[in-house]
Amino acid sequence: MGAFTGMTELLGDLVPVATSLGYPESSICVLEGDIDLLAAKFPQTHANLMSCRHNRDSRTPIEYGRDLVASWIYEDTLMAELNNCGLEIVGAGADRNREILATAKVSAASDCCVSSGGSSRKLEIMNDYKGYWSKYRRIDLRDDKFNKLGRENSIFLGVAPQEKKYVIIDFANNVNAKYIPSHFPY
């Protein structure tokens, strides 16, 4: 189960949620799953989506796009809840405008910046909808994500919504990890 399926199970129809969050019409079109309409009405977004072959793994372009937009919904919902708890949190990633980017513009930058008590840190949010982390007792970070989180002393917040579990990793501390130069799913 990917982000789209997982978030749909949690929230129901994601289109009204994305609309209420002010997502661009092109991202709404992706959520609706109409690749032909996307190509006709939003050719640049379609081209960007088609360029993300590496990022989409074994998913079709529209499956990847739907997972991506659903992940943004989760991030934005979580950021709103953290703001309600007294933290200052704002989007900081390359995709913070919630438009699908060409693969060349996709980066390993953290999703947001969180501030509290005069201190600010980058925050990376990741989800596990399939129970992979519990089953294998590991979290896989692709490309240069691990190194980038370490360089920025970021905080990693991993949430497994279906299992009602989470993990927080403070990259300002030494993180026990193993580098794998190539990982089959990626």
Mean pLDDT: 87
**Low-confidence segments, ≥5 residues, pLDDT <50?**
none
Radius of gyration over alpha carbons?
Answer: 16 Å
Order of helices and strands: HHHHHHHEEEHHEE
Task: Tell me the fraction of residues in β-strands, as a range.
Answer: 15-25%
How far apart are the first and last residues' alpha carbons, in Å? 17 Å
The profile of the biggest β sheet is: 5 strands, mixed
Helix content: 40-55%
Count of DSSP H/I helices: 9
Total E-strand runs: 5
| Global morphology | globular
Largest beta sheet: strand ordering: 1-2-3-4-5
The assigned structural class equals alpha+beta
Explain this structure to me?
With 186 residues, the protein is of the alpha+beta class. The chain has helices at residues 3-11, 14-20, 25-32, 35-41, 43-51, 53-56, 61-84, 132-136, 145-151, and strands at 88-91, 112-116, 119-127, 155-160, 165-170. It has nine helices and five strands; from the N terminus they run αααααααβββααββ. A five-stranded mixed sheet has the order 1-2-3-4-5, with helices on one face. Strand 4 and strand 5 (165-170) form a beta hairpin. 28% of the residues are buried.
